[in-house]
Design brief:
Alpha-Beta Plaits; alpha/beta; 5-stranded antiparallel β-sheet; 11 strands; 6-stranded mixed β-sheet; 12 helices; disordered N terminus
């Protein structure tokens, strides 16, 4: 089994690396990709078949409304639609566009369908494998690949009808899983509280369109077109606006949450900078103590006696004079410990001096600054 798993990773995962750019996790949300599912020759699900309006039409209407409202409420955010008309897009084109645009979020909009006509409510999917329902949603949404020309070559062996193909997909998006789940939960809460829809929860599925995006990604199922009441709601202008507004509100909440992390980090950095500056300022106020050994008009070598009897001896030139110092010391008491040794080793007239910012100050001033 282990050998089979590695074989699948090598044959299915490695070839896909060309589809995505290297993932970089960021808290800033400056660009969002809105993906209207299906389109053109791919109608998506047909609903109750009472109307000639299908999943592709609802997805496009809600996507356009969502994009318009985000641009209006968040003028600093760039919105990119994968499609703005009834055209067919191959799945890899959607993800390639998202990655090429370097989006910070990817939201794919769809409508659900099931044989049980009584089923209704909203669901938001993130990348993952759900063993409970054998990935039926993934099979349905990914099967659009079969409508594409030369899909065997484009997807390099990936077959949406084969369960083993989903091993490859589950290895992607983990870098963004936390953010994706966070956004999905916010969307579901907004659908329930703002749009009054039934919340069917956040679920995981190995969906191709979310797996290949190098950014947090979700796939939204607005509701069941196979439920006549929910279909009527989603086909209505009011219903589409409600669902779009819920997505927009969720986007705003997510953006504020993520970017509050940036503000918090900036606040911490600024606080640290101010603290460092204050410590540096205080450090500059502190005096430095030395033992003055001698003053001479001649520069004498320190490797000869009596200077060589002592450690840490330096020369400070002041005009034409050379001041010979031992130290430096942080306190007068530290200085006094070595003063007696200096007096007994060639410098009987040695005494303590103090400096601040390289300028000599009185010991009285130094003691005041040290307090």
């Amino acid at each position: 089994m282990q050998r089979l798993t590695w074989f699948l990773i090598v044959t299915l995962v490695i070839p896909y690396l060309g589809f995505t750019s290297y993932p970089v996790v960021s808290d800033r949300v400056d660009k969002v990709i809105i993906d209207a599912g299906h389109g053109g020759k791919d109608p998506g699900n047909l609903g109750t078949r009472r109307y000639k309006t299908y999943e592709k039409d609802v997805a496009l209407a809600v996507a356009i409304e969502t994009a318009k409202e985000i641009e209006k409420k968040y003028p600093d955010v760039e919105v990119v639609l994968t499609r703005d008309s009834d055209k067919f897009l191959e799945l890899y084109e959607r993800t390639a566009l998202a990655n090429r645009e370097k989006g910070d979020l990817f939201i794919s909009i769809h409508c659900d369908a099931v044989d049980n006509k009584a089923a209704y409510g909203t669901t938001t999917y993130v990348m993952g494998k759900n063993h409970d329902d054998e990935n039926q949603v993934a099979l349905r949404e990914n099967s659009v690949i079969l409508m594409e020309d030369n899909y065997q070559e484009k997807y390099e062996g990936y077959d949406p009808l084969k369960p083993e193909s989903y091993i490859a997909l589950t290895l992607y998006q983990y870098a963004f899983q936390t953010q994706s789940i966070e956004l999905a939960q916010i969307i579901q809460n907004s659908f329930k509280n703002d749009a009054g829809r039934r919340d069917r929860g956040v679920k995981q599925q190995p969906l191709y369109v979310t797996s290949r995006c190098s950014m947090p990604s979700v796939l939204v199922e607005l509701g069941y077109l196979t439920n006549s009441q929910e279909e009527d709601f989603l086909l209505s202008s009011l219903g589409q606006k409600k669902m779009a507004n819920a997505i927009v509100a969720s986007f705003g909440s997510y953006k504020n949450r993520r970017e509050s992390n940036i503000k918090e980090q900036e606040t911490k950095r600024e606080a640290k900078r101010l603290k460092d500056e204050e410590e540096k300022r205080k450090e500059n106020l502190k005096p430095t103590y030395f033992i003055q050994l001698a003053v001479s008009g001649l520069k004498k070598p320190l490797n000869e006696k009596p200077f060589s009897n002592l450690e840490r001896v330096s020369i400070k030139k002041e005009g034409r004079l050379y001041r010979y110092l031992q130290g430096d010391y942080n306190s007068k008491s530290e200085c006094q410990k070595d003063l007696l040794f200096a007096k007994n080793n060639g410098f009987p007239d040695a005494f303590i001096v103090a400096f601040k910012n390289n300028e000599k100050i009185s010991l009285t001033e130094a003691e005041r600054l040290s307090q």
